[in-house]
């Protein structure tokens, strides 16, 4: 399980330090892809297999399903952790998420998200302002 929020800089080569608390669970090779709300997602190979299996269940005759699958799969990249605990994020993904320098890595249960710090701060502020209403609207899913 991934939890917590960590701030790290991404360098000009697209390398970012993976927090030590995430390294063991992620393993040496992981998948980084475009994700929702303007961030990137990091999945272990095992978790990525589950994402893939879920995408295969979507109806290929439904346009939205094809578009969603294309957006996730076409941007996915296999990344390896180096000896200093960094991964190099391909430039097409750093551009996708507007990552320039200050980043936030967020543990989100089964994956890790990488956010541009300004984008994360704005997202978090909006979510915080509406936290009680959001929680109330989701109570049906907690049983």
UniProtKB/TrEMBL annotation:
Occurrences of domain SpoVT-AbrB (ranges): 5-47, 76-119
Keywords assigned by UniProt, alphabetized: Cytoplasm, DNA-binding, Repeat, Transcription, Transcription regulation
A single MF term (Gene Ontology): DNA-binding transcription factor activity
Signal peptide, first to last residue: none
Family annotation (SUPFAM superfamilies): AbrB/MazE/MraZ-like (SSF89447)
Keyword NAD: no
GO biological process, one term: negative regulation of DNA-templated transcription initiation
Protein's cellular compartments: Cytoplasm, Nucleoid
GO cellular component, one term: nucleoid
CDD domains found in the cross-reference section: MraZ_C, MraZ_N
InterPro entries, per the entry: MraZ, MraZ_C, MraZ_dom, MraZ_N, MraZ_sf, SpoVT-AbrB_dom, SpoVT-AbrB_sf
Stored PANTHER family: TRANSCRIPTIONAL REGULATOR MRAZ
NCBIfam families with a match to the protein in the record: division/cell wall cluster transcriptional repressor MraZ (TIGR00242)
Similarity comment: Belongs to the MraZ family.
Subunit record text: Forms oligomers.
Descriptive protein name: Transcriptional regulator MraZ
Underlying gene: mraZ
């Amino acid at each position: 399980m991934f939890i917590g929020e960590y701030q790290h800089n991404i360098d000009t080569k697209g390398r970012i330090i993976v927090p030590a608390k995430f390294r063991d669970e992620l393993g040496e090779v992981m998948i980084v892809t475009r994700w929702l709300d303007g961030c990137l997602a990091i999945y272990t190979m095992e978790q990525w297999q589950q994402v893939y299996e879920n995408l295969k269940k979507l109806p290929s005759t439904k346009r939205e399903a094809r578009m969603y699958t294309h957006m996730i799969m076409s941007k996915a990249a296999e990344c390896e952790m180096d000896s200093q605990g960094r991964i190099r994020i391909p430039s097409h993904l750093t551009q996708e998420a507007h990552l320039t320098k200050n980043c936030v890595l967020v543990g989100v249960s089964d994956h890790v998200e990488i956010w541009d710090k300004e984008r994360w701060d704005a997202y978090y502020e909006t979510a915080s302002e509406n936290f009680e209403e959001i929680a109330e609207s989701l109570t049906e899913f907690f049983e």
